[in-house]
């Protein structure tokens, strides 16, 4: 069970941030799905639902997704589909069920850098940036490399509209289980980005494979070779969903599939 000492419903991010840094025991509440798992006592719960960061805005060169946007809105947005195809939908449709996706938020998901996160794998492939209320704009790639957590609010995720094609592949033991591995691939001006998530640690880019595949014609042979490069350069681990060796093997297949899908 989760219990709150105090509960605050701020009307702005400024009010939320001031309260957040004023108390060590303060905790932001997005959808609350993860926080409510297990027993937890939160001194000050700061509910972000009234801070005005629930939106998906299409600008001239990028799309902005507010931190309180639900995974379901993220999944079904026509703006995101028109600009990026099915990669966004494919990265969230396996998460439990519509009820949970109606509640869980993209801001909490990205900020928390969960190793199993499917949307992070997709967003990393799409070269997304994040905007932190205090820390400003940084690339997701850099944010994922940071060792410490900043005490900040994830205000929005920003995706540039220059993506030509993108794809998401994953393998799970059952439809709604956590992923054993996830792969995101995108193409911008002939350059490919390959992200590998649920390794089981947080998603990272496969730089050597990206360099290789961006300089050759993509076909069955080169996509196979890129998959092999990924399996060698990425550090995989073992957990109760899959072994390091298994992840290494399936990475070859998922990368090849995603590359062939993206080059079509
Ligand atoms: C049973 C279950 C199964 C799941 N399976 C999957 C899965 O297969 N794949 C997958 O990708 N995800 C999965 N998830 C995770 C889910 O997609 C969300 O990432 C998770 O629920 C967090 O979203 P939330 O809005 O509920 O966060 P909350 O529980 O509200 O918050 C989580 C953390 O983020 C912080 N936080 C909240 N909002 C912000 C913000 N805007 N800025 C900064 N910090 C913030 C909170 O303080 C807290 O520390 C699963 C979740 C559950 C409960």
From TrEMBL:
Keywords, ordered alphabetically:
FAD, Flavoprotein, Oxidoreductase
User: Which InterPro entries is this protein grouped with?
Assistant: CO_DH_flav_C, Diverse_Substr_Oxidored, FAD-bd_PCMH, Mopterin_DH_FAD-bd
- Ranges of residues in domain FAD-binding PCMH-type: 1-164
Indicate yes or no for the key word Oxidoreductase.
yes
What is the superkingdom listed in this entry's lineage?
Answer: Bacteria
Concerning PANTHER family, the annotation shows: XANTHINE DEHYDROGENASE SUBUNIT C-RELATED
> Could you tell me what this protein is called?
FAD binding domain-containing protein
Upper classification of the organism: Bacteria, Bacillati, Bacillota, Tissierellia, Tissierellales
